[in-house]
């Protein structure tokens, strides 16, 4: 008998009008990725440009979760905006490092550190 996974929990708070902090809890995988994508799309729809993704309560993430993070990173970059990963668990950090996602998407230890990075980020869109 398979063990039932805990459902994904995503709490959204707004530290600033254009910044969404998404606190994610549970496994971020093929079964829960669509729900995570809906939360991000909703925040994009409401004009958020910067996304802080707190992954401190995500014990496991597969390629589905990584693909969504990279997709929102690309969309935010085009606004211009940014995506920051906060406090990933060791297992998730290992995946981010092995796949190179942590090179593309900045990793911070706290929401405060990520907000400081938002403040330092340039507001000019990159040329194609």
From TrEMBL:
Molecular function terms from GO: anti-sigma factor antagonist activity
PROSITE patterns, A to Z: STAS
This protein's record includes keyword Iron-sulfur: no
Keywords attached to this entry: Plasmid
Ranges for domain STAS: 17-118
SUPFAM superfamilies for this protein: SpoIIaa-like
NCBIfam families (alphabetical): ant_ant_sig
Annotated protein name in UniProt: Anti-sigma factor antagonist
Organism expressing this protein natively: Streptomyces fungicidicus
Species classification: Bacteria, Bacillati, Actinomycetota, Actinomycetes, Kitasatosporales
